[in-house]
Design goal:
472 residues; alpha/beta; Aminopeptidase; 2 domains; eight-stranded mixed beta sheet; 16 strands; globular
Length: 472
Amino acid sequence: MAKSDITSWIDANADTFTEVSRKIWENPELGYTESFASSLQIQILQQAGFRIRTGIGDIATAFIAEYGTSHPIVGILGEFDALPGLSQQVSPVHQPLVVNGPGHGCGHNLLGTAGVEAVIALKQRMDAENIPGTIRYYGCPAEELLSGKTFMARSGVFADLDCALTWHPGSTNATSNVRFQALSAIEFYFSGITAHAGSAPHLGRSALDAVELMNVGANYMREHVPDGTRIHYQITNGGMAPNIVPDSASVYYFLRGANRKQVDELQARLIKIAQGAAMMTETTVRWEIKAGCYDTLPNLALNELMFSQATDAGQIVFTEEEEAFARELYNAVAPVGSGTEASGSEKEKRLDSVFYHDLNQVGKSVGASTDVGDVSWITPVGQVTTTCAPRGITVHTWQATASFGSTIGMKGMHYAAKIMALTAYDLLNNTNGILERAKAEFVENTKGFDYQAGIPDEVVPPGYSGQLTPSL
């Protein structure tokens, strides 16, 4: 009966957490500024009897909620930051709530709330059955900036975990057996000499010329990097006016690769290109590393355990209205008549209720990145996705924002909460020696690796005042 008690509790309290998720969706906040979402989750967890530590990793919006006093210690990772420019109503046509405003196009309004829902549901069973152990919810800011968990990991808050669980909103119910790429985010700042671009250009030394030369060099480097590498950049400062030789300019790079070592090597080469560009233009350059997350290391033992909960969790049931909304959203991506719209039975059903565990995906490197990777090199991590949007909808789009604020997203969120709570219940009870198997796999895959954060010690989180300290 214990597992049915967990799912029954989540069903009975679903409206409470739907409202929490909706409030966060309606009040989207960018990374390191998530004071509304962080405070709302802290309030709910405090009321449920969890001990709260704030200011984790010297980030104002990062926190840990903990219940219990002994081992095993099972963590659940949550996120709550939004993306710029993805404001959107729950509508199949593009209708921003705030023009150019932020929106939850990655579903973090759902992601963190499901974690809160799961740990509170699990606490009920711990109390009812006197289950020993500790559960923790980690309120993790700024995943979209790929650095929140890295700063937290650098401060050591994941080091004593026996394992951790997480999930992500998606368009299928599936275990995450792939390896998301490692990433470095680095901004280069060039300084030159200003001058009148028309009457005295010989007196100027253009910082923008240095940026453009650097970008040319980086683009030539693309031919000579490992397959699957990604290099993205954005000119963040190009000068003030065309008739003024700019004495300052900057460019922001994302570098992705299959593993941390590959990205570190790419970063070293890019720095040499920046230095070369500065030499060619007689300018100077400095740089700041803003993120340095690891590739994700899947734990098959934990992913299989999460997959095994599907029977007890039941299946998501979508209504005809939700299916119709899903088709409209999909057609907003692939308009009717474009040749890419759904056809046949697929056209009738865009929402997936089946749970997949594809072993053919194990270890496959994919182009996206997440700071969950840092945690996965410190402790075993299990991860799944659940159906919160139609097939054919990708995250980081307005269509995703619309779905993640709809009843479709909410149903996927409650399903994820069930999967995580049921999995954590088995982990606390160490059913069939699952903890030992997950740890043995982790030891085998890491081969004595000692985690070192990809963000240097001297780099502090945005908004850091020098006054924050973690406290109970």
